[in-house]
Prior knowledge:
- The chain is an alpha/beta fold and 325 residues long.
- It has helices at 41-49, 64-72, 87-95, 111-122, 157-176, 195-200, 219-232, 250-259, 269-272, 278-285, 293-298, 308-321, and strands at 33-37, 56-61, 76-79, 98-101, 128-134, 145-146, 180-185, 187-189, 206-208, 216-218, 236-240, 266-268, 289-290.
- It is 37% helix and 16% strand.
- The strands form 4 sheets. Strands 3-2-1-4-5-7-11 form a 7-stranded parallel sheet, with helices on both faces.
- It starts with 32 loop residues before the first strand and ends with a helix.
Amino acid sequence: MSHPPTLLLPIPLLSTLLLPSPGFFATSEGMTTLLAVGLGYCTRHLLATHPDLFDRVIGTARTPEGVAALEALGVEGVLFDGLAASPALRAAVAEAHVLVLSAPPGEAGDPLLAVAEADIAASHNLQQILYLTTLGVYGDHDGGWVDETTPPRAGSARLERRLKAEAGLLALGVRKGIPVASLRLAGIYGPGRNAFLNLKAGEARRIDKPGQVFNRIHVADIATSMAAVIGQGFSGLLNVTDDRPAPPGDPIAFAAGLMGVEPPPLLPFAEVAQTMSPMALSFWAGNKRVRNTRLKEELGVTLAYPTFEDGLGALYGEMRDAGEI
């Protein structure tokens, strides 16, 4: 096996991240090549915090400039506009041992599956697929608790496309006889993407919608969850979320308190909704509390940041020490 590539990914390794124990990846022996379609925030963090997991990483980008940016990070870049599979993309599919798919689905479902399903099905190397999607597919449950056994209530064309992509990939896994894991992610925060930066930029808003709650998840815990899925060959649906859903304005108020600044005023949802995009409105239409029992009990994942206070508290110390706030 060749040495792992040096990935110059601009994501700091958090000192409090819970890394797997030695031998954790024993079941993924030979899984050396990753193809990430839509190599974004979560997968970059996985690679930065688990540099020995793959010895070759291929990522797609929609433009030549995006390909060049990936290659500057030490990733093999392949052009994929979501509409057609080039010879280079087909070769990457044939060579990959693990697929991580996070590109938004189109009308035809998952972009890669739509143009390269036959290539995926014919691959002799492919051992596992991870699909990164959203808890939004559960829809609205009036603040009630849901888990992976709860039937989805998409409620919008965008979320219906998510479910179509998920179903297509799970069915492919059954036909091919390989594990396919659909990671349904909560609202993501972490380095470079958090309430402190929004407050500093004057962009934070506290929206008051009585009874509304959201789950959240630190990107470090997503990376740990992805590593657990790969290491254990998990297949099926998996909620990746923190332990405690909370009202939408609470993290902003908590972050403002740590910074020693006044939180922005509460804005009535009815007023703000008039200026929201359809995508934002569909996000706010889903009110639910999501359980993560399967993540913790079946995969044995211990969250580094089980609440937003834990995650924001750690981020505040790191950002303060780095002079970012």
